[in-house]
Design a protein that fits this description.
The protein is 0% helix and 68% strand. By secondary structure, it is mainly beta. It has a single domain, classed as Beta Barrel (Porin), CATH 2.40.160. A 12-stranded antiparallel barrel has the order 1-2-3-4-5-6-7-8-9-10-11-12. Strand 2 and strand 3 form a beta hairpin. The radius of gyration is 18 Å and the shape is globular. The N terminus is likely disordered.
Length: 250
């Protein structure tokens, strides 16, 4: 149950949900979850300040964990243009099959106007393992296969295809450190090459600090970095995002 939703895949920037930052040390049996929001500052393809909202629900049994994540956001680009995004993610992890790895499968729907993404559907599955863990935290890795369909809002003259269907190989390393009872630091690094062409890849890094104010309320600071070797026309190869916010856990 402690490994629960642990096979991490990127979530903040044009990618899958980062499950590592959603993990807790003591998920109770039954249903639990959290709601929260933050203020975002992005540089790269877009420069804007936006409000983001997020929520998640766990359903934990002795043999498996189900996770539903919902994210949304809105804001103004360059003080005039409106930006919005939305995401719905479902994941099911099997925690009693092996003491070494946790297999799972997942699906996701999302869109992001800032990335010219009008629709994405993802389905896949993989495994996660922990190299070392203790009271200090955990060091782990994972791998999965992802079938990814994207529909982009591009002009007719664009070189990049408006619709793509790719099979990607997603790999990650994660380090989760708990210096004190009220502070959790998580770093997750991903590499996602297309199986048909390893020159087409995405690399991501997420660094997150969560400081507990009470047993249920925490302040969070997150930094996301994303590199796309072959972005759609008119988009930069590198994106960054800095977020601060609060999270309430029930």
């Amino acid at each position: 149950m402690l490994i629960t939703a642990s096979c991490a895949f990127p979530g903040a920037l044009h990618a899958q949900v980062n499950i590592e930052v959603l993990r807790t040390d003591s998920l109770p049996l039954g249903r639990s979850g959290s709601v929260g929001g933050d203020m975002s500052i992005r540089t790269g393809n877009v420069d804007f300040i936006a409000l983001d909202f997020r929520g998640r629900v766990y359903n934990v049994t002795p043999n498996e964990t189900r996770l539903i994540v919902g994210n949304g956001g809105l804001g103004f680009l360059d003080r005039s243009r409106f930006a919005s995004n939305g995401l719905l993610h479902y994941r099911r992890s099997y925690t009693s099959i092996s003491s070494y790895i946790d297999p799972e499968w997942f699906g996701q729907l999302n869109y992001d106007r800032a990335q010219r993404l009008t629709f994405r559907a993802i389905a896949g599955g993989g495994v996660r393992t922990a190299f070392a863990q203790g009271a200090w935290g955990q060091f782990g890795a994972g791998s999965s296969g992802i079938l990814e369909y994207e529909r982009l809002a591009l002009p007719d003259t664009a070189v990049h295809a408006k619709r793509t269907l790719e099979m990607r190989w997603s790999n990650f390393l994660t380090l989760r450190v708990v210096p004190t009872d009220n502070l959790v630091i998580t770093s997750t690094t991903y590499v996602q090459p297309a199986l048909a062409d390893f020159g087409d890849f995405r690399a991501l890094e997420n660094l997150r600090l969560s400081a507990g104010v009470t047993e249920t309320l925490a302040l969070t600071v997150s930094f996301d970095l994303r590199y796309d070797s072959r972005p759609p026309d008119g988009l930069a190869t590198l994106d960054t995002r800095l977020r601060t916010g609060v999270t309430y856990t029930y």
